Amino acid sequence: MKTIIAACSQNLSGSRASLQAALRTLLAVPWLSQRDIRAALQLLAVLQWVLSFLLLGTVSLMVLIYLLFTSFWLIPTLYLAWIIFDWDTPERGGRRLPCLRRWTVWKHFRDYFPVKLVKTHDLSPSHNYIIGSHPHGILCVGAFCNFITGSTGFEEMFPGIHSFLTTLAGNFRLPLFREYLMSGGLFPVTRRAIGYLLSQNGTGNAVAIVIGGAAESLSCRPGVTTLILRNRKGFVRMALRHGASLVPSFSFGENDLFRQVVFEEGSWMRSIQKRFQKMVGFAPCVFYGRSLTSSRSRGFLPYARPITTVVGEPMMVPKMQNPSRELVDTYHEMYIQALLKLFNDNKTKYGLSETDELHIL
Questions:
Q1: Around Cβ 25, how many Cβ atoms within 10 Å?
Q2: All residues at 6 or more sequence positions from 99 whose CB lies less than 8 Å from its CB, including other chains
């Protein structure tokens, strides 16, 4: 009996020692700090955004096609019927959900870079506006964060103004992706959609257009600021037809988020990119950023670089149903000069040097 008790006592002492050793090991493990948790949430917020814009439409389409050949064929059939019935909604005001703009995830998205909005002049809610957003960059992070999410306080800075952002019309042909875009306040960059917001949606509407588009993304690289604008005059014509004021805006740091392989003009790769852009509507850029696990290895996530979007002074234009070419050219040149002034007045404040120039093609 004494032998058994002694053995049990020895085992108990050994178990206690093992437990104490395990507790010491556990306490020695470094716990995540609040800073580490915030960094992880910011990275996840950016990851979900990138995956949504790059894959949501394509993956949804593939899943629905697959379901057509299964016992769940009724689901894609009913959704196809819904899209046909709902086909024109993106060009008739969409279905914007204010709650989506207030998602906490967008605050983490904002803080990852971080993104900041700077106001230089008031915008009256008794007017409508076309905001020219420059530059395009690779994924238009500045335009999306400032004009679609409420994380940078656009509606607080400009009381009574509701911001919208236009994107490729083809995006609204992709299942589920179209619902996601409309709920956030994105619209097709078409005359009909923009005309609806500027003429049939009351006043206090600010429609942001990334004027350079896909062509401009081909020239996106750090340290070089090149805009495709000289022959982009449709936005000026729309402003004149609806009497909407023109507002230049510039996102400093947008071109620093990714590294791109830029092919020279006249090269066969550049020709393929331009041909693809004309057929599909967007340019197949060869770019890279950071990986999910490390900022030192390459991946598809943007680098954490500060973006500051400066919204300039509104430029009043007359309302004319059929503006002449000369009038369009006049206001287009006035817009370019206002954009150049906005860039030069703010470039040294937000990361550029006095010698940096804005190249407009």
A1: 9
A2: none
CA distance to 79, 101, 115, 184, 210, per residue, from 148 (Å)? 26, 7, 13, 6, 13
Is 26 contained in some domain?
Answer: no
CATH of the domain at 232: 3.40.1130
Torsion of CA 156, 162, 168, 174, to 10 degrees: 100
- pLDDT tens-digit series, residues 179-201: 999 998 899 999 999 999 998 88
Domain assignment present for 291: yes
Is residue 200 within 8 A of residue 94, CB to CB? The reply is no
242 close to 128: Cβ distance less than 8 angstroms: yes
The tens digit of pLDDT for each residue in 144-171 reads: 999 999 899 999 999 999 999 999 888 8
Q: Report the C-alpha gap between 42 and 247 in whole angstroms.
A: 31
Flag whether 134 is in a domain.
yes
pTM of structure: 0.86
How confident is the model at residue 128, as a pLDDT?
97
Q: Is 262 left (phi over 0), alpha (psi -120 to 50) or beta?
A: beta
Query: What is the residue range of 325's domain?
Result: 34-360
Domain count, the chain: 1
**What single DSSP character describes residue 52?**
I
